[in-house]
Every structure is written in structure tokens, then in C-alpha cells.
Amino acid sequence: MNKDLRQPIIAGNWKMNMLASQVEAYAQELLLLTQGHESWCKTVVCAPYPLLPAAIDAFKGSGVGTGAQNLSMHASGAYTGEVSAAQLIDIGAEYVIIGHSERRAYYGETDEIVNKKSLAALESPLRPIICVGETLQQRELGVTFDLVSMQVKTALHEVAADALGRVIIAYEPVWAIGTGVTATPEDAQEVCHAIREVISGLYGQEAAGATPILYGGSMNDKNARELLMMPDVDGGLIGGASLKPESFAVIVNAASQR
Ligand code: PEP
After folding, report:
1. Is 223 in the pocket of ligand 1 (CB under 6 A)?
2. Among this protein's residues, is 193 annotated catalytic?
3. Scanning 27, 37, 64, 72, which has its CA 20 to 30 A from the CA of 93?
4. Assign residue 142 a region: left if phi > 0, alpha if psi is -120 to 50, beta otherwise?
5. Model confidence over 240-250: pLDDT tens digits?
6. C-beta neighbour count of 157 within 10 angstroms
7. 3-state SS, residue 9
């Protein structure tokens, strides 16, 4: 499928930053700075749980989607501190980041857990943003494609073809996250293309052509345009640069102009 038929998605990951009292001003500024671009680029903000109601409220009716940064693999029950897909849907969230490398590294999330969380999200109306990517050591060992392919295949295990339409994949090389080091547009393209091939092998070319594949890892207002022009890069997952509406808006506007 022609890239131009895939709507670009720019998703901000606030991580454990911001306060509820700051959300309204952030939203107003972002909406002002992206006016006119929102109809083509899908903008999403993934907020910490306690900030989600404020974000959902602030972006209501604007076309900007809101999401969480994690969810439980379980539907309900005795899982202290966890949040379920149904609870996210109940407050109006639409997206959820799954398998971010910080969760994999600090909270022991394995590919199997990422798969269970993806299935839990897809049993609800949520759109999962499933993160995959290699460490620097793995890149230097030359196993990037094998590893990312395995991560994608495991994450999508038992995901039905009709649910794939809600899946968003984010290729996030671990060495590029929060480091200021960005993958070159060619490196990002190469891996995003390989991911599309994996999806094509699992679900067919048409389904792969319709799946949004984002790049994440120190994307900012300076480098976004070049990365977003790559044929298999359908948008970005943005950490640091999503915290300031000015820089996040430049990325959203760049994605809209491709
Ligand atoms: C991320 O956390 O998903 C991310 C890409 O972070 P940063 O943009 O800060 O590298």
C-alpha cells in the first residue's frame, strides 16, 4: 500500500513527567500551534495514569487522541497497583503504549508479557502502540533484524487478522531513547521496512501495507522531517520532545506536510 494512504501518527510519551495542573495549558498551546494540521496527522498524547482524566478532558473534541503508557494483562481482580483495559476505556482513553523499552528494562517485561498485554488491549477497543527495538550491543552483534522480527512475531501471537487493524508498531532502538542519539533515516527505514515484511509474512501484504509503523528514539523538531519522509516510517513515538508543546507541534506539523 502506498505510504500516502496511511495516516501519519505522532504519539507523545510524557513518561513520568508533568502534573495534572499543567495539562490544560499544554493542550491549549498544542492545539493552537497545530491548527489546520490535525485532520491529516493523528496526534496522540500518552499521559501518566493520574493525568489521563485531565488530558482526556483538555483534548475532548479536538481530534487529539489520548492514551496510557501501560496496562495490566489481566481483565480485573486482585492485582494491586495495576490498571485494566476496561478501566482505561471507561475513562475515555483510546491508546496504550505496550512493551516500552523502559518497562522491559526496569520492570522485567518479556516478549510474552508484551503479547499478553497486547491481547488484553485488543480485547477492548484500545489501540496498542507496541514497542520493539534492539540494544546497542544487539545492533553491534548484527542481530537487529532477527531480534526485532522475534519481538514483533511474539507480540502478535494469536492476534486475529481483524484486530491487526488497530495495532500500531513503534520501532524504538533502545540506544536512541532519551540519549539524543537518533537512528539515521536510512537505519530507521531499513528496520521499519523489515517489520512490515514480518507483518506481511504473518497477515499478508495488504494488511502489512495498512499497519502504521512509527519510529521512536530522540526524534525532535530538528530531525523529524527527514525521518518522517522515509517510505516505511509512518510517524513517531516522541518522549522528551513531546513535553514542550512548541517542539511537539513542529513534529506534528512536519508529519502533516510529508
Ligand atoms: C520514548 O520514550 O518512547 C522515546 C522515544 O523517548 P525520546 O524521544 O526521549 O528518545
Report:
1. no
2. no
3. 37
4. left
5. 999 999 999 99
6. 15
7. strand
